[in-house]
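Input.
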Amino acid sequence: MPQVASPSVPSDLATIAERYDALVARGAIERDPAQERVVAVLDAFAHRLTDIKQTRFGLTKLLDRGDISDEKGRGIYIFGGVGGGKTMLMDLFFESVSLEAKRRIHFHEFMVDVHDRLRKAREKMEDRRTNGGDPLSHVVRALATEARLLCLDELAVSDIADAMMLGRVLTELLSQGVVLVATSNVDPDSLYEGGIYRELFLPFVALLKLHVDVVNLDARTDFRLEKREEEGGWYKPADANAKAELDRVFARLTDNVPPEPLTLPVLGRTIRVPLQARGVARFSFRDLCLAPMAAVDYIAIAQRFHTLIIEGLPARFSHRNHVKRLCSLIDVLYERHVKLIASAEGDPHSIYLGMVAVFGGAIGPPPDQSDTFPELLESRRAVSRLIEMRSCDYSAAERYHRARRLS
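Output.
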């Protein structure tokens, strides 16, 4: 049976094991022994979190908070290969914890949020012409107040700026007693592997391991690869026939409403949407991945549109930044349950080979000598998600989440 990234379960089920068993019984997922072991760990962890109590100020605090190795304050770090169910299990855990001051967010969105808050904090200090201290400390204190339990999905680090920012932010959050639950494709010791100045990031890795129990989700397969493909979502090659098909799909999805361009504001600048109507936007690969765009831009697009039509996904890439943007785009669309319809020069496997080829020797050893280089993991995860986004299950989930947004 196919695996579902974040299926819905009845809200009256108490434990993670009960929620997991309900999904198995419904046929939404296939029972997997590795997943069951992680479910048991998460259930025990959720029980420990009963020691987190609400205060009358609406905040929370850890009872008996003391040494950072205190068992009550230790979080969970789940790592494993792509498509093994990490996100699903974390979502089941998050839904089962009856704590108001909690937050679940994808890593890309978390970093976008931190940068946005930091920009606003600096602007406020400049407007007041005062030295209010370190703006990042102000940001971290606000984050710690809002969420005593932070669930970060797909934690990954691929550049020195994010490495240093993440190290500072999470170090301060952990020191303030925030409990972290994270998923990642690699164990903590392999975070930012091969990155420049990685030695500056290693103290954070050591601190992280003091605050979390590391759990390996060694699922038997990438369950996304077993999904049944939906008809009419992928057209290859990206030629005139594919363009005509996309024209037809666009017209059908928008009820033949004449499409118009749109300008989206993002952090004081704008993104141009070439064509859009009725919640459907049409772009080319060049529009989205050759232009200097970032996760914050893709988040703005995903918040505005429930369906994206993208023309001309290549099987060969001319620059590694184009690959990184495509990976970021797919992550955001997947996280937001946005439907993707595309024309491409090949199937997802061909796209993955093109992604790997563009890195060459730029990130250290050849790709076949390491499975933990960030760019390769990002590419593998992106293509795995791309496969799932073509499936019937993903389309059903997209319709469900679209209905929830409209309700």
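The chain has a mean pLDDT of 80.
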